[in-house]
């Protein structure tokens, strides 16, 4: 009966961790063999019989009978006189099986054995959890808020698995209370030590794709395909869709009557404004659609292979002056998303302004720092006149530049035209 407490250790784990019988028996045998090896030097001549369902455990040591005084390996050999104490009719050369009681291993060995058993079962459980969630990477997953920290929300699923939603993976408008259900995609799963760390994301473009699959049957069935996604989480997104069935209007099917189909997705994403557009392999038409609601007059594409940023190249987009602000959008959001979606840097040009009447900002790189020029480029301003046409207050709102910097830049540009 001295093995009962130890057996109870794995019985409770069997219920909590849902370990199958074969795996449990393999873990137990591994743990006990390690203990026997430490005690006797070898476990090769031991038989271990385990019945985890009943809590039965038997350990038998097999030794060969030798003449008294001729034992060379006490783990594998037993003197005749000792063997006959077990069974009087044993003779030299016969095999003796003797049961080993756990108490024979010593108290410290038993404590170590129990701790090793617990560790192995947790390790097995962690490995299974890791494998399970690794297969779910990129899929939508729901869990409840368990704990809120300043840099992350800790979630628990129905099986008690801990899932982390970092601040960086939350939409800016996200606000969750304890016990509230949260949806996102499993972004990454990795083992840190023996513990699986599961990261949930609500900002990844893939989350938007999966929401389309959940909410729009034609996307789920593959009748409509999503060819591209660009997101500024919680603010605006552009989704390019296509269909191989000419009878299906992919944009109409995704949006629904009066936006009925896409409304649930918008609400899930904190009222993120979603533009759905028809995908096309015609690069010029694709760029024009991506810049909607602006109407493009013409464009010139400069292909640039092997760029470090992965972009395909640069495009000069020509628009009427009144369309420029639409193409750029509030805080440069529209042109940034169009650039992400198409894979090109988009430079907005005013149709009708002759090249000699304007100067590119890069021409002033000896007087204006590169990072300042980049700030203007972010909102679609890449020429001297385009910056001079803007009010200082508007530039303050749309860039991260200070008023003093903007005034200095405009002064430099103004002097160019005065000269």
TrEMBL record:
Q: Name one GO biological process term.
A: transcription antitermination
Q: Which molecular-function annotation in GO is an example for this chain?
A: DNA-binding transcription factor activity
Q: Which GO terms describe its cellular component?
A: cytosol
Which keywords, in A-to-Z order, does the entry hold? Cytoplasm, Elongation factor, Protein biosynthesis, RNA-binding, Transcription, Transcription antitermination, Transcription regulation, Transcription termination
Q: Major place of localization? A: cytoplasm
PROSITE patterns documented for this protein: KH_TYPE_1
| SUPFAM superfamilies reported for this sequence | Nucleic acid-binding proteins (SSF50249), Prokaryotic type KH domain (KH-domain type II) (SSF54814), Transcription factor NusA, N-terminal domain (SSF69705)
**Pfam families, A to Z:** KH_NusA_1st (PF13184), KH_NusA_2nd (PF26594), NusA_N (PF08529)
* Localisation per UniProt entry: Cytoplasm
Question: Which SMART domains does the protein's record reference?
Answer: KH (SM00322)
Where in the numbering of this chain does the K Homology domain appear? 233-306, 311-393
UniProt xrefs under CDD domains? KH-II_NusA_rpt1, KH-II_NusA_rpt2
Give the similarity note. Belongs to the NusA family.
Q: How does it assemble?
A: Monomer. Binds directly to the core enzyme of the DNA-dependent RNA polymerase and to nascent RNA.
HAMAP family on file: NusA_B (MF_00945_B)
Its biological purpose is as follows: Participates in both transcription termination and antitermination.
What is the name of this protein? Answer: Transcription termination/antitermination protein NusA
From the UniProt record, report the name of the gene that encodes this protein. Answer: nusA
């Amino acid at each position: 009966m001295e093995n009962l407490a130890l057996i109870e250790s794995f019985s409770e784990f069997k219920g909590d961790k849902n370990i199958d019988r074969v795996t449990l028996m393999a873990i137990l045998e591994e743990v006990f063999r390690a203990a026997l090896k430490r005690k006797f030097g070898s476990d090769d001549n031991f038989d271990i019989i385990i019945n985890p369902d009943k809590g039965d455990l038997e350990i038998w040591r097999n030794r060969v009978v030798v003449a008294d005084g001729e034992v060379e390996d006490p783990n594998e050999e037993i003197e005749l006189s000792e063997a006959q104490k077990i069974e009087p009719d044993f003779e030299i050369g016969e095999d003796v099986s003797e049961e080993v009681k756990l108490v024979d291993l010593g108290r410290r060995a038993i404590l170590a054995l129990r701790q090793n058993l617990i560790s192995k079962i947790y390790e097995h459980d962690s490995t299974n959890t890791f494998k399970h969630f690794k297969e779910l990477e990129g899929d939508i997953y729901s869990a409840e808020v368990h704990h809120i920290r300043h840099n992350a929300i800790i979630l628990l699923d129905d099986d008690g698995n801990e899932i982390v939603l970092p601040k960086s993976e939350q939409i800016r408008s996200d606000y969750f209370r304890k016990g509230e259900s949260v949806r996102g995609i499993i972004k990454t799963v990795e083992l840190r030590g023996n513990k699986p760390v599961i990261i949930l994301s609500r900002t990844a473009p893939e989350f938007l794709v999966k929401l389309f699959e959940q909410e729009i049957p034609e996307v789920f069935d593959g009748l409509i395909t999503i060819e591209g996604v660009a997101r500024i989480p919680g603010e605006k997104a552009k989704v390019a869709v296509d269909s191989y069935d000419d009878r299906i209007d992919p944009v109409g099917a995704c949006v629904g009557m009066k936006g009925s189909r896409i409304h649930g997705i918008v609400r899930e994403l904190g009222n993120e404004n979603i533009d759905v557009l028809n995908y096309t392999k015609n690069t010029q038409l694709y760029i024009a659609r991506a810049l909607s609601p602006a109407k493009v007059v013409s464009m010139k594409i400069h292909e640039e292979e092997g760029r470090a940023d992965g972009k395909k190249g640069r495009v000069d987009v020509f628009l009427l002056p009144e369309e420029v602000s639409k193409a750029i959008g509030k805080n440069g959001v529209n042109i940034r998303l169009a650039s992400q979606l198409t894979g090109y840097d988009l430079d907005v040009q005013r149709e009708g302004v002759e090249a000699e009447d304007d100067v590119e900002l890069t021409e002033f790189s000896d007087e204006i720092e590169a990072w300042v020029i980049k700030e203007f480029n972010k909102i679609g301003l890449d020429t001297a006149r385009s910056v001079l046409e803007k009010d200082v207050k508007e530039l303050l709102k749309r860039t991260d530049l200070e008023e003093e910097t903007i005034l200095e830049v405009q002064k430099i540009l103004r002097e160019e035209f005065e000269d």
